[in-house]
């Protein structure tokens, strides 16, 4: 389990260039005209985690397997997408299927790259797309209400539950606000999720700047960062052009040297992953042994049996206990045996909440 993130934005903002760089593929055609990507391209990348390399070295693991992060490159939206403009219905459907939205915004000037609205203004651009998502949600809910009301009059419990949640969300949408700020309690969460609202998804704003401004940002990016903070969303500054160059270098040392020359400490990929993990409340646990060192992902709040189920459904079904060592204890003790010797291996039961960096060996019986 990783997380599934849809890359969206207006045409010609650098979505496909970023996707190609992040996945180190040429699956998405990057071209200087709208709709060069019609079907969504999906790319999976290993999540870089320095802890995994350290654990593998301590355990002499033969293989290292990182957890996976999935990117979906969705074709550029335009004004009127909610009404079907620019194949809008198709594109909005692709967005509906992802867990989070990675919104790429053009924050650079370049006379050689056309802008669909004729000038660079990232706040205008993000407003264009967010308005289309909001209008699509509004139309979706308004269409459902008559049928739900009819079923509710017949004492349909599910219909009543849906109507109650919709009545909390609809006024917000009508006021131009996203569904995700609705005050939904724990008992309504499942119903809210079933609505599959576009504006309920967490957003990471990606400010795509020029190579020269990747380390410092610029006035365009500053406006986006301020906007994101005001909405409770996250933002990162990267240069899709730099990411493309870094992805072409196979030697990690060369990559680091290249980044340092530009005043950068890490790639945009790492920034996106870090922000994405925070966005979706994810954490990483490990399984370590001589055959392989492997990272896995669960949502914060997951309990030990759920973590076991990420590996195999039988592990969750027949869960007995989780032999657990924290990452720091494992490293400080020089490995699993050392941790056992100093009493740092614990047996945790069904109610144990998984902590980031936990190293597990699951006991189960099916």
What does this protein structure show overall?
The protein is an alpha/beta fold. The chain has 14 helices and 12 strands. The strands form 3 sheets. The protein has a 6-stranded mixed sheet, sandwiched between helices. Strands 3-9-8 form a 3-stranded mixed sheet, sandwiched between helices. The chain has a 3-stranded antiparallel sheet with strand order 11-10-12. Strand 8 and strand 9 form a beta hairpin. Helix 1 packs parallel to helix 8 and helix 4 packs antiparallel against helix 5. The longest helix has 32 residues, at 122-153. The model is unreliable at 25-38 (pLDDT under 50).
List keywords for this structure.
3-stranded mixed β-sheet; 19% strand; 12 strands; single chain; 14 helices; 366 residues; alpha/beta; 6-stranded mixed β-sheet
């Amino acid at each position: 389990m990783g997380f599934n993130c849809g890359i969206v934005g207006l045409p010609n903002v650098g979505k496909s260039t970023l996707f190609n760089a992040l996945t180190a593929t040429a699956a998405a055609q990057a071209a200087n005209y709208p709709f060069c990507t019609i079907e969504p391209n999906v790319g999976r990348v290993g999540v870089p985690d320095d802890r995994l390399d350290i654990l593998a070295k301590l355990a002499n693991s033969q293989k290292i397997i990182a957890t996976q992060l999935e990117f979906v490159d969705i074709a550029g939206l335009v004004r009127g997408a909610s009404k079907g403009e620019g194949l809008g219905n198709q594109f909005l459907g692709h967005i509906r299927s992802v867990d989070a939205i990675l919104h790429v915004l053009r924050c650079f000037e370049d006379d050689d790259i056309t802008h669909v609205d004729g000038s660079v203004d990232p706040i205008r651009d993000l407003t264009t797309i967010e308005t289309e998502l909001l209008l699509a949600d509004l139309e979706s809910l308004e269409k459902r209400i008559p049928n739900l009301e009819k079923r509710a009059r017949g004492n349909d419990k599910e219909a009543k539950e849906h109507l109650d949640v919709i009545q909390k969300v609809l006024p917000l949408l009508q006021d131009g606000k996203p569904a995700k700020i609705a005050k939904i309690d724990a008992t309504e969460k499942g119903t809210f999720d079933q609505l599959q609202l576009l504006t309920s998804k967490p957003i990471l704003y990606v400010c795509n700047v020029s190579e020269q401004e990747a380390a410092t940002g610029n006035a365009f990016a500053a406006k986006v960062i301020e906007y994101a903070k005001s909405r409770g969303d996250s933002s990162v500054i990267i240069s899709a052009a730099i990411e493309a160059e870094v992805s072409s270098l196979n030697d990690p040392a060369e990559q680091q040297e290249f980044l340092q020359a530009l005043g950068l400490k890490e790639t945009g990929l790492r920034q996106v992953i870090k922000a994405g993990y925070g966005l979706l409340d994810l954490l990483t646990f490990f399984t370590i042994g001589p055959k392989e060192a492997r990272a896995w992902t669960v949502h914060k709040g997951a309990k030990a049996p759920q973590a076991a189920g990420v590996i195999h459904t039988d592990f969750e079904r027949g869960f007995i206990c989780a032999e657990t060592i924290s990452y720091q204890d494992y490293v400080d003790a020089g490995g699993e045996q050392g941790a056992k010797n100093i009493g740092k291996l614990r047996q945790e039961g069904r109610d144990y909440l998984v902590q980031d960096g936990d190293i597990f060996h699951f006991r189960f019986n099916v």
